[in-house]
């Protein structure tokens, strides 16, 4: 098989890139290790920045997002018995959209299928070859067949555990990592959200987040031990713990019900530099991870895709190589800002096992400053709604 861009990974990064390239007349093939059903069963991000919703519009896949997504003009933050609101619309003139990553991925699969886009599922042993030459190719096995794809470029969109990043020789890449000493236990339940807006809670017992997918589908998270297992947490234990971490008024009105999904996510900050080698370009979780506080993972993946599809379009349209040569530097400049914001918000909101009383007082003082200072609120809101591409 031959294509212009071989895309490794059929998660949101790979699919969005494939669809944006298609809209600009560039052919691609997506290789995905799992089944489509498996990819669509993963419950992940829920808050989309304007940059991502604009990309969905450019990709021609925003009809359902516009009809079913919820615009959020602000969020609530609580600490101790205090609660305050960050008014994104007033502070920045922008808002965010609540629409699940699962739905983004579903819409992108539908668009790729409608356009006859080539996708290979259950691709095993995906291997990248001659990446530092002008004629790279990718091999894999699928449905018992050996497959070879000759291409001009390879996009590594295969997530943190993928093969693409590891194809860059170790001597040529630097990896920067911080692992946090706790996880997030998340549940999805068919109950009305406790509040129309998200609530981020710094409590004495640890972080909690009240989020949602729609009027009858809630997503809640609580900070847990990194070694906890989801099945060791009964639904009742989860709801009891959540109630203890949110303000009394919300705890009293919280509607509980059986969980329809329960999982634990580890928290990690990670960046691989550079994000390109030869004809290989990394996008999304393949190159970087943020802790989820502030919902930057999917959104940062989207900004990579934005830079890469534009660079490839410029190359194919007028032979201009400046975009592809500068991809890594351009993407990393924004990645590091998202890393800083996610690290800062995580550090502010969680209980750390080695935290001293002084450290805790610093968190509370910073939250009090944020509550009372418009400049601090503006800085936070600008990051939350998404820095410009
Ligand atoms: P992925 O979604 O990881 O997709 C990569 C794809 O590549 C996968 O489908 C995988 O099967 C495939 N693949 C892997 N290896 C290979 C291979 N060798 N060959 C072929 N295919 C391969 N972000 C938020 O903003 N908010 C959240 O609440 C949030 N929660 C999260 C919870 C969890 C458990 C995880 C893991 C992530 C979460 N994130 C969250 C982050 C967000 O989901 C990711 O940033 C986003 O999925 C990145 O998209 P991606 O396409 O780059 O990577
Ligand atoms: C969600 C996850 C986040 O990490 C976040 O900051 C906001 C919302 C969610 O899954 O809904």
UniProtKB/TrEMBL annotation:
Residues 2-342 form the FAD-binding domain. GO terms for biological process: benzoate catabolic process. Pfam families: FAD_binding_3. Keywords: FAD, Flavoprotein, Monooxygenase, Oxidoreductase. The keyword Flavoprotein applies. Gene3D superfamilies: D-Amino Acid Oxidase, subunit A, domain 2, FAD/NAD(P)-binding domain. GO terms for molecular function: 4-hydroxybenzoate 3-monooxygenase activity; FAD binding. NCBIfam families: pbenz_hydroxyl (TIGR02360), PRK08243.1 (NF006091). This is p-hydroxybenzoate 3-monooxygenase.
